[in-house]
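A student in our group prepared the protein record below, which I am reviewing. What it holds is a sequence and that sequence's fold in token form. My question to you is simply how this chain folds and whether the tokens agree. Do not assume that whoever made the record got everything right. I have pasted the whole thing underneath without changing anything:
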Amino acid sequence: MCCCDLINTDRSWKKHLIIAKDARRLDVLCYRIYLSYRLLDGTSRFKELHGIVKDAKAKIETEVGPVDGVSAKMARGIVSRLSVAGDVQKLCSLAIEKAEEWLTTISSANPNCRG
């Protein structure tokens, strides 16, 4: 896999994180965090970012249970009512910032990569 493929992979899960960060509905937040977690799981270049997403996932799961399915708490919940909502949104922002730093570094090192 070349760095251009990694950038495209980055964009996919980064989009999910951007949506999660701005989510108002709990089911949307959980789903997008879960998708980002799955996309990053097992990657070697994105270990730090996967750790951030894993922390966000764990914080949500302490309040609503597993995010890989639909729970009754999640069905019509509002994100702002979670006690960990601010922490999760900060973690999403941190992961997005790290991804953008990495993307900038790779793009400047290899000008043939286009997004």
